[in-house]
Automatic annotation (TrEMBL):
Localization, UniProt: Cytoplasm
Gene3D superfamilies (UniProt xref): Winged helix-like DNA-binding domain superfamily/Winged helix DNA-binding domain
GO BP, one annotated term: response to stress
Keyword Transcription regulation: yes
Main location: cytoplasm
Coiled coil location: none
Domain of life, per lineage: Bacteria
Record key words, sorted: Cytoplasm, DNA-binding, Transcription, Transcription regulation
One cellular component term from this protein's GO annotations in UniProt: cytoplasm
Full protein name: MarR family transcriptional regulator
Boundaries of every HTH marR-type domain copy: 10-140
InterPro entries attached to this UniProt entry: HTH_MarR-typ (IPR000835), MarR/SlyA-like (IPR039422), Transc_reg_Sar_Rot_HTH (IPR055166), WH-like_DNA-bd_sf (IPR036388), WH_DNA-bd_sf (IPR036390)
Amino acid sequence: MKKDDKLLLSNHLCFAIYAASREMIKLYHPLLKELGITYPQYLVLLVLWEKEKISVKGLGEELYLDSGTLTPVLKRLEERGLIIRERSKEDERSVIITLTTEGNEFKEKVTLIPNAVFDKTGCNEEEIKSYNKEIRNLLNMLTTEQ
C-alpha cells in the first residue's frame, strides 16, 4: 500500500463499519417506529429479556454505552411502563433495571424483527453468523486491554 493510499476513504475499515452500522440501523427504524421504540431502547430490551435484571453499569458494559447515554433511554422506557429502575438494596450507588410485566409481554411484539431485518439484507443465516463472529472478534480485539 502506498503512503497516500492510507488516506483513501475506501481503505478505512472504521468508515466501512460506520456506514454499514448506519445502514443496518436504517433497516430497523421503520419496524421499531411502528412499535414506538428507538433502536437504543430495543437494545436495552434485548439485554433485559436475556438477563431479566441488570445494573445500569452492567447494561452499559453490555452495550458499550456510558450512563449519560443510557439514562435518557432508560427514563423513556420507564415512562412507557416497560422497565423499573430501583436503587440496589446492597449498594445504594447502584441502580438495577428490571422488566415490568408489560416489558416482558412486549417481547412478543418484536419477535419477527430480526428475521425481517435479515431478509432485507439479502444475506443468508450463515453469512449473518459469519459477519457477526468476525465483527465481534474485531470488537473484542479493540476493547481488550493490551
